[in-house]
Amino acid sequence: NKTGEISKDELMLACKDVYFDALLSSLGLRIFDVERIFELMDVNGEGLVGFDEFVMACQRLRGDARAADLVQLQLETHRISAQVQELHQAIVYPHGSSLKRPS
Q: In whole angstroms, what is the distance from residue 58 CA to residue 80 CA?
């Protein structure tokens, strides 16, 4: 779309292209589940994957299905960690204040 980012629909369309598939294959990457792969690529959850996200994901996902599973675990761990941090902030600073508690 010439924005430097790709949506899930654009990735699905690209994966049907013989040349794009050959390019990915030459990188050691086979995409069978485009939706799952897109979720792994879309690190920030914006619904678009930038060039850097795409390249990093391709590098991490090379190999067999176990590599994709590990990347998915890393992503889920990152999301859970962020949620735990939010909960911690809500408990320590219940009114949204970031000031330290008095000793």
A: 23
Give long-range contacts, CB 8 A cutoff, 24+ apart: 6-15. Answer: 6/48, 6/49, 6/54, 7/47, 7/48, 7/49, 8/34, 8/35, 8/38, 8/42, 8/47, 11/37, 11/38, 11/41, 11/49
Q: Which residues contact 27 (CB under 8 A, 6 or more apart)?
A: 58, 62
| Secondary structure (DSSP) of 37-74 | HHHHH-TT-SSEEEHHHHHHHHHHH-SSHHHHHHHHHH
What is the per-residue pLDDT across 25-81, written as a single tens digit (0 to 9) for each? 787 777 777 787 888 788 778 889 988 888 877 777 776 656 777 787 888 888 889
